[in-house]
């Protein structure tokens, strides 16, 4: 009986997703190990190893649950997460001038990161119950996005707030919102960009200008971009060797174990591993999207499509940032950057995605659905 259950469990998994994600996790651990190395195994690496291990247990556990049963708890999950987010200004821990974390002793949790999961799940729950665009229910959903967005902007964390917008727009796209609304929003954003520029803080403006000319403020806003570009470029095809990166180990590169861990990987292990890492992420996105034609239930389409869009956006921005093609924002690379909240958030998303996929694999492809 046990053997039958194990065999059934193994056959139910999408091994292309599992193997790609496992490869990404291993490369991430190597990157964090090197970035935090100072003559021995660091405490940060051990924490990251625990986060990854717990994350995999979460993925495998959620993959066995019924997606729609979990979906019914979406409003409750959102409410709990919103409560934690409201607590941050009062009991939160300030790091580098930003108050984003709640200190729980040995670990810190970042409610704004978990809110990505809560909003994505809530979108799949709510949009299938909304029949008209301009309705009370639709405006309630917009309010559910607006409240955490305002709270997170004030932390301040503009990067995470933008991911909330990506989740909302992606969910509306897969819900079937007509293209003219997106075009109208794009035109509105272009016309209102001068106003957005005025409300940005000085350091945010400096980060945007640094992309255009990082040497304009070499020791200030452009410093991190310049050091990251040097690290990525100096690795060449084969890299300088594990633990041999000069930009990271000579302390030129800030935030090397979090948002800029890819710079460490590219410098030490070269273009070949960096390109494999990038390819693995895009393979994950393609694989998730490939199941959408099989889905005949709107919740499944919304969840897989929106998650794929979020994953693609966050990966693209992180890679672009480390290569000097995007402003420096708080955008961790899933399963690679150090941080328990990010790892657990994407573990929840991948776990539920595998739950959906298990049901879809037995269905024929519906190209007309």
Give me the strand/helix succession: HHHHHEEEHHHHHHHHHH
Largest sheet: 3 strands, antiparallel
Distance between the termini: 38 Å
Number of helices: 15
Tally the structural domains: 1
Structural class designation = mainly alpha
Total strand count, please? 3
Task: Outline the low-pLDDT stretches.
Answer: none
Radius of gyration: 21 Å
Shape field: globular
Strand content: under 5%
Helix content, binned percent? 55-70%
Q: Describe it for me?
A:
This protein has 369 residues and is mainly alpha-helical. It has one domain (2-360). The protein is built from 15 helices and three strands. It has a three-stranded antiparallel sheet with strand order 1-2-3. The radius of gyration is 21 Å and the shape is globular.
Keywords:
single chain, 369 residues, mainly alpha, 3-stranded antiparallel sheet, 3 strands, 68% helix, 3% strand, globular
Secondary-structure map:
Layout: H1 2-12, H2 15-35, H3 43-62, H4 67-71, H5 74-91, E1 92-95, E2 98-103, E3 108-109, H6 111-127, H7 136-153, H8 158-175, H9 179-199, H10 202-212, H11 223-234, H12 246-249, H13 261-290, H14 298-322, H15 340-360
Antiparallel strand pairs: 1-2, 2-3
